[in-house]
Amino acid sequence: MTTANVEVAAHDGEIDIVVSGEIDLSNAESVQDDIFAAITNHLVAVHIDLSKLTYIDSAGLRILFALADRLRLLQTRCRLSAPAGSPIQRVIELSGLASLVDVHLS
Questions:
Q1: Would you say 65 and 32 are in contact if contact means Cβ atoms under 8 Å apart?
Q2: Fold assignment, 8-52+59-105
Q3: Ranges for the STAS domain (predicted)?
């Protein structure tokens, strides 16, 4: 069974969400629940840090697309960080997610 950890830190109308470990079909629902529980109608911006994520499959990508859509409806900025040259960056690029959120490469 794969494991993922979601850490949330809130400050001044913004939240930072750090996702670490691996996201696949076996844990995607709980990861999505953890992330979406942190999203409120009063946020100005959300930063998703994927620098500690080692694997993501289509179920994990579905979470990120759903989050981007939800934040668009809430008119909340979304910034996604991923390591430059990493497989996670490549997946983000190939999926088209970069056209929906601001992607920052570290």
A1: no
A2: Transcription Regulator spoIIAA (3.30.750)
A3: 4-106
Q: How far is CA 102 from CA 28, 56, 105, in A?
A: 22, 19, 10
Q: How far is CA 97 from CA 68, 88, 89, in A?
A: 8, 12, 10
Reported confidence tier of residue 2, pLDDT bands at 50, 70, 90:
confident
Q: What DSSP element (H or E) covers 12?
A: none
pLDDT at 51 over 90: yes
Domain positions in the chain: 8-52+59-105
Cα distances (angstroms) measured from residue 31 to each of 13, 65, 98, 105, 106: 22, 14, 21, 22, 23
Strand 4-11 versus strand 14-23 pairing type: antiparallel
Please, which pLDDT band fits residue 64 given cuts at 50, 70 and 90?
very high
Contact assessment for residue 78 and residue 65, using Cβ atoms and an 8 Å cutoff: no
For position 106, what pLDDT does the model report? Answer: 87
